[in-house]
Each structure stands twice: as structure tokens, then as C-alpha cells.
């Protein structure tokens, strides 16, 4: 079982309706979005998603000539207790890992954080040795379903 | 197919007596033809009679090609002012056909041909196709547009003269182009370089490249770079050739490059080339950049004296490695009217293309937008990002943007705003590529 998961990253031009097109395509093809983050810059947006079937999602977008790729990330489970995320981050920093970006999603009573780093395997190792739980890929793709 | 390396190339020359003539033989032929042409236009075309009278030049003053500098110029505006047939040098009934410009830079220009003009045009294209190694055994897929535009018809005439098989596809419908190319076992294809690249990319996507018999590509009608040529050649495993022409002079087949790619050989027995300083109109030395000017030496219906092409190039005389003595013009450095003056700096779209391709990170599809903000010219370049270079990290895309900006600034000498766009968002041309949009209101 893979402890790292595949994020679907999509390049979105800043023009009317583009985001809608991407989301519409995924929906129409039964690719469910589990978690999502949208970053925007002056001329383009970056859509990052955890979906039910990342390979299928990428194929669908590719055939519609939308630039998308799969990125390896880690999904960490965090309890709803103050300071728990900070504690995890401290351990990652101690391990000399650089976090590029992160975003959170809620699932039921718990919360989860998607972490993109330069060394996902090591992040998994650090988190697990310190008692944190990470999502396994197959579970993560089906979270909230 | 596999591209043939220069070392293994077997050069074919359709008309060695002309294409490999000595300078003296060529000068004698050109002189004889120029004297005859000048006499004919003076007698039959009021426009030229008036112009020559104004300059105080009589046909008798033109004794040979060395006197060409005494003759008046002709511009595109002159052709438009005499639309459609006021410059005709033969009776109306001798016109066999008309062709015209694509009209991209303004009003339509119409060019009449007699049957002999048409035959010579075909002969020139046949020489060009031979230069690309093609023979009567070949099947040539023509995806230049057919119609008033000279691309489709010109190639067709050349294929006929060569005795090869023509596949008259015209432009558009990329899927069907691929099907016919494969099913009819085409061995060469002809179209604009931007469409060739579009076709090549589509062929890769469809996975048909290995099933094709294509070994040569003949591309012209718009400026393209060496990098673009290499890209088409490496995708399709073929040899690509650059063909040049303009309808005012005849059409494609005015000049063509050989396997050695040392410039485009001008068929100077029919079209006499001069390269002139655009400001002083004095002849440039070999290798010096100036405006290309043509005088037709055999045209019957529309003979033109010193027609200013607005194409910037330089010329080299001397024998080429292929054995031809025809002078060679360099790949165009742009057109005098494509050139944009941005904050006082001359910018040519081809410079942008060269710089981008040299980086190797972005697709050679770009669009330049020139705007004026607060009385300042602003140049924006839209470039497509290959999937390979797309990153989920914004920082990396920003780095790419900065890098493109720096490379372009170094190449052009002006600052450039870079906008990254998704692949295939910039319109692919099936005719002439639009590379620059000038939104400045300079009136």
C-alpha cells in the first residue's frame, strides 16, 4: 500500500469559465474531488486536487488539451486539537525537509493536511515515527465517500 | 522515413546550363532579357513610360544589366493603384489566369499571367522540387491553399512540370491530410512552416509518423527559423527545404535552398535580384543586409521593374557546395513592414522565435502583443508551456517566466512582459501565422 498519494495538478489560464470547464469535465466522468486548493497568480491559476481516480482524471483533462500532471504528496491526519499541526511541522523541519505548499481538508470528525515536499517518502517516515497517521493512497481517494 | 545526411545526398540539377552558368554567361543572358523587357514596358505600359520619362531615361539608355540602377522602382502601392489590370503589358485576351496576394497586409493585389508566364512559373517550381531531391517518381502532397493565393497553384504547376504526382489537398482538415498522406503514400509535402509544425505535432499525437513515406518537406510563404526547421525535421525524420516567392513576381519558386542550407538560390535568369540599402537605395555589398528588389526578365503579362519586396536579406554570389552558381539570399531577417519599432528599438518576430527555441523549454508558438500604456510601448509575449515543463509549484513557473523574460530582453534589447499560456491556446495557422498584434493607436 502506498503511503504517498497522487495529487492532480492543473494549469488554469485566467479566463472566464476555465475553472468551470475543468471541474465540469471531471464531474461528468465520475471523478470525485476529495480535496481541493486553488492558488492564483497574475495570469494563471493552479488547481491542486485529490480525486477518486487521479490517473483517469489526468487522462480526461489531457484529451481535452488541458495541462495537468500528477504530483506525489503526503496526506497527514491531524486531530482537532490545538498545536497538533505545529508539532508535526516541527518534526518535518527537524528532518531538513522543505515544504513547498500545503492545504487542509476536513473529513468527518478529523482533519487532514496535504503536504507537498521535496521528499515525500521521508515525510511519511518522520510522521509515522512520531505517532502521526498518514492516509494510504486507496483510502485517501475514497475519503468522504 | 529517414532524413538524408548532407554527405550522402545525391544532388540533382534540373537545368545545369542555367543553374551552373558562369557569371559572364548569366550576365549576357540577363542583359539581353532586361533590354528587351525595358523596351516592351516602355511601349506598352503607360505607368512605366511616365516614370521613365520623369527620370529622363529612355529604353536606349539601358544597354545591359549594369544599367539597372537607372530604372524606376515599383511598389506594392503602385500595383494597388493600378488594380486590377492597368499595368498589363499584353492585350487582355492573352491573360491565361490571375492570382493574387492573400490580402493579409491590406487590399488585394491581383497578378495576371500569360500562358508562357504560367509555364515559366511551373518550370521554376520544378527546379526547386528537383533541388529537394524529388523526381517524376515522387508523390507530392500539397497542403498550401488553392485559390487566388499562389501557394497551392504554384506547387501544382511545378509538380506537373516535373511529371510527378500531385495530391491537391489545399489547406485545413488536419485529420484528412494525415489520412491521405498515409493512404496515397505521399513522398513529400508542401505547406507553410507553421502548418507543417502543426501537422507534425498532430501526426505524433495520432501515432502515424512511422507509417508515412514522406522524405521531404517544402515550406515557405512565411518567415521561419532554423530551429523550426530542425524541429519539423526531427519529428518527421525528413529533410526540409525553404521555398520563397511572391505573387507579384510569379509565386513560389523565385528562390529555394538546397541541402547545404547556405541561402536560397534565386532563379536569376527570370528574376533579377538586387539588395539595396532601404534608405539610400544604393546596392549593398555581398553579405550586407538590405531590402530585396526584383526585376522580372521574362514576364509577359505583368513585367515589373525593380519591385520592392520589403523583405530584408543579404545576397551572396559564388559557387555553392551543390554546384550551382545562382546567387543565394539569406533567410529573411524580417519584413520592413513586419518590423515593430518598440521604444525606438527594431523588433522582428523571428528574433523572438529564435530566442525561445534556443531555450528549449517552451513550444515555438508565441504571440507578440504591442500596446501603448501611458504613452509608453509595452511588449507582451504570450508563450505556451509544454506539459513537460509544467510544474505544480508556482515558484517554478515564475522562474520559467523570469527566464523567458530575461532571454527575450537580451535578444531584443527591450523589456518584455511574459504571459504563460496553456499549450495550443495560441491559434495555429493553416495559412499565414499571425505572430504580432499591434494594438497601438498611432494616428
Any overview of this molecule?
The complex is a heterodimer of chains A (145) and B (443). Chain A has 145 residues and is of the alpha+beta class. Chain A folds into 2 domains: 5-71, VC0802-like; 73-141, 2-Layer Sandwich (VC0802-like). Chain A is built from 5 helices and 7 strands, in the order βαββαβαββαβα. In chain A, a hairpin with a 3-residue loop joins strand 2 and strand 3. Chain B is an alpha/beta fold and 443 residues long. In chain B, the strands form 5 sheets. Chain B has a 9-stranded mixed sheet. The mean pLDDT of chain B is 89. Chains A and B meet through strand 1 and strand 3 of A and helix 11 and strand 20 of B.
| CATH class category of the largest domain in chain B | Alpha Beta
Biggest interface and which pair forms it? Answer: A-B, 19 and 16 residues
CATH topology of the largest domain in chain B: Rossmann fold
- The CATH architecture term of the largest domain in chain A is 2-Layer Sandwich
**Which strand-content bin applies to the residues of chain B?**
15-25%
Gyration radius of chain B, in Å: 22 Å
Distance, first to last CA of chain A: 20 Å
Element pattern of chain A in H and E: EHEEHEHEEHEH
* The CATH architecture of the largest domain in chain B: 3-Layer(aba) Sandwich
Overall geometry of chain B: globular
Overall morphology of chain A: globular
Helix-strand makeup class of chain A: alpha+beta
Helicity of chain A, in percent? 25-40%
